[in-house]
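Query structure, 386 tokens:
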């Protein structure tokens, strides 16, 4: 669905307009929102550049859908501003209606018109174009989404994945300034979600579209988005690339939510080294530990994040760990291992290394990134091990 029936008329604000130009299709400045006394968004700020695909990722109830509703114009702000293509569309004293925001929306249930053909669904928002231009734009998008031979069919004659692509084509047809995708794959099976995620990214990039995806599925987010904001309790915990979210999480919540991993106990040796049960790691540790102050000098306790790829299976290693769980994944196996101290770690090994439960196996530490947290504070230091 696309909301763009009229050009917005908004009050001028030169200072903010200088920050939000047409090259920044979406900018949120210190946005807060509440339902009665229940605060759902707190001082939220981020922006999307032209052609960028962003994503808000988080558990249910974190506020990500409320962000989408505020951007689309379905909710009024308690605090802050929302700018679209250089124009202020939301603030406590001004609210442009959805139809004036030049936004396309792909809903969770697709919201296709059952009485219209695929071609008519895609062309629904193109009533201002003449017949020839409208037909050309519909044909272009149907070819882009791979449904050029389905133009005369009706939604009920399509699979779920095909309906999703029709909804995407319909939202893109009027060339909106911003596309919002609200959990667009939640009704599809896992295999189809993964395949369509890659297809949707290619389609958005081919159309040079700026888009914001809302999802709770990190695999979906990583497959589609250029940058991702991890949300919890109405705040963005970290806005970054998928690579940095995985390897350089800003706090314990992000470290736990993104990917798989475990926190193991470690002891600070000096400003560059921390020792864990599997050996010593070099990198930047929490700054107050590195300074060696009275309350946090040598011997300070930290927690070090280990990912499954940090613990490598090695039959020749003297370090041994007991297999207590295994998850077969085809090309590889995810092992849960118990160290002599009782601590548990994860290890990803090629599936031809098929070990039995209770079997001790050789492992070695191969961590390229060190992520350490003070045990009594939610502070983090990230570094590449040298």
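Result returned for the query:
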């Amino acid at each position: 669905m696309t909301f763009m029936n009229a050009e917005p008329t908004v009050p001028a604000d030169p200072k903010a307009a200088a920050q939000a130009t047409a090259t920044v299709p979406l900018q949120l400045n210190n946005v807060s929102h509440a339902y009665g006394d229940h605060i759902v968004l707190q001082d939220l700020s981020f922006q999307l550049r032209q052609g960028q695909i962003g994503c808000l990722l988080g558990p249910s109830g974190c506020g990500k859908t409320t962000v989408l509703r505020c951007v689309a114009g379905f909710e009024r702000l308690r605090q802050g501003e929302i700018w679209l293509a250089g124009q202020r569309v939301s603030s406590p004293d001004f609210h442009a209606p959805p139809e004036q925001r030049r936004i396309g929306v792909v809903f969770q249930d697709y919201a296709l018109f059952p009485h219209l053909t695929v071609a008519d669904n895609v062309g629904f928002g193109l009533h201002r174009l003449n017949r020839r231009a409208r037909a050309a734009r519909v044909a272009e998008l149907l070819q882009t989404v791979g449904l050029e031979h389905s133009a005369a069919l009706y939604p009920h004659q399509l699979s779920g994945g095909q309906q999703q692509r029709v909804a995407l084509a319909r939202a893109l047809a009027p060339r909106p300034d911003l596309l919002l995708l609200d959990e667009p794959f939640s009704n599809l099976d896992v295999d189809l979600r993964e395949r369509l995620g890659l297809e949707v990214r290619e389609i958005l990039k081919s159309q040079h579209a700026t888009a914001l995806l809302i999802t709770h599925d990190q695999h979906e987010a990583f497959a589609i988005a250029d940058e991702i904001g991890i949300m919890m309790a109405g705040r963005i915990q970290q806005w970054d690339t998928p690579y940095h979210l995985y390897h350089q999480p800003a706090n314990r919540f992000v470290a736990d939510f993104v990917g798989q991993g475990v926190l193991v106990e470690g002891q600070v040796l000096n400003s560059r080294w921390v020792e864990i049960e599997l050996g010593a790691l070099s990198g930047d540790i929490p700054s107050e530990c590195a300074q060696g102050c009275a309350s946090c000098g040598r011997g300070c306790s930290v927690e070090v994040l280990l990912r499954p790829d940090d613990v490598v299976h090695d039959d020749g290693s003297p370090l041994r760990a007991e297999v207590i769980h295994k998850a077969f994944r085809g090309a590889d196996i995810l092992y849960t291992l118990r160290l002599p101290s009782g601590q548990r770690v994860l290890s990803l090994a090629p599936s031809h290394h098929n070990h039995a439960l209770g079997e001790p196996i050789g492992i070695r530490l191969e961590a390229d990134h060190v992520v350490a947290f003070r045990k009594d504070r939610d502070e983090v230091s990230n570094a590449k091990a040298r």
